[in-house]
Amino acid sequence: MNPSEQLACYTREVEQVIEAWLPKEEGYQKHLIEAMNYSMKAGGKRLRPLFMREVYRLFGGEGREVEPFMAAIEMIHTFSLVHDDLPCMDNDEFRRGLPTTWVKYGYDMAVLAGDALFIQAMETASKAFSMTDRADIVGRCIQILSSKAGIYGMIGGQTVDVELTGSPLDAEQLDFIFRLKTGALLEAPMMIGALLGGADEAQLKTVEEMAAAIGMAFQIQDDILDVTSSQDVLGKPVGSDEKNNKTTYVSLYGLEQAMADVERRSSQALECLKTLPGNHEFLEHLIRLLVTREK
Fold it and tell me: Would you give the distance in Å from CA 244 to the centre of its chain?
């Protein structure tokens, strides 16, 4: 199986894990759950749960206690997208080639769906307690999950991003937004996978550094695609950063420097990966894919 076929196969496996943890669409709150599940099933690269599982396996993890965390990180990521698309944020009408949640279900239901996905993520992650005898590790993983998603992680980065929209950003401010808004939600799954797989503290630190570099490369590439891709390829409107008067990596440093920095950050991540145990082949392919992706 070549790397592309392996990625497609692994992505399908991750999809199956995620769908197994979605709430049933029933009861008086059925419409809300439909909106949640619509958002979760809208596709996507599933990079976060995929990275989590592969880092878990890298350290020798073989159980199923990682699965509720795989679903939980994708719920948190999806919650952030649902709210990011709202008229009060980016006001986007399409994502992954489909109408955004607020367009399909209404503004009010989209707000509630995002809220519900966030708390559902924590409930789902807590199911791991009954799947392992290492309650201390599960508890620490939940702490990482909530911390990297909260005011010192993704939501903190989004806050600064929203507050400074329309204002010119300097390099330090943009770096802060990237590290928290995107980097934190890649650090969390890789760190959780490492801990559940048996990583020691030094290895955990290396995994965090690797994930931070991947997060920066990923977000810079996102900014590049916003000016070089098309809606048909990307599945969402291009040029939305310019439309919303956002400073991006490309507007700050130029396209050529941005492309070089994606390569540099990816190389940093690969150097970290080389120091970790296990078979690196698939993870190396996945990291390299971020440099060349078109959507």
Answer: 22
| Domain membership of residue 26 as a residue range | 3-292
Nearest to 262 by CA among 182, 184, 194: 182
pTM given for the model? 0.92
Supply the CATH number for residue 31's domain: 1.10.600.10
DSSP 280: -
Which residue in the block uniquely carries the two structure tokens 């799954």? 189
Q: What is the pLDDT of residue 267?
A: 94
Type of residue at 106: G
pLDDT in tens, 74-132: 999 999 999 999 999 989 999 988 999 999 999 999 999 999 999 999 999 999 999 99
Q: What is the DSSP string of 81-134?
A: HHHHTSTTTT---EETTEE-HHHHH-HHHHHHHHHHHHHHHHHHHHGGGGG-S-
Bridge-based pairing state of the strands 94-95 and 98-99: antiparallel
Tell me how many domains the chain contains: 1
Residue type, 92: D
For 35-54, write each residue's pLDDT tens digit.
999 999 998 889 999 999 99
Which of 187, 190, 197, 189 has the alpha carbon at shortest distance from 137? Answer: 197
Q: With contact defined as beta carbons under 8 Å apart, do 36 and 117 qualify?
A: yes
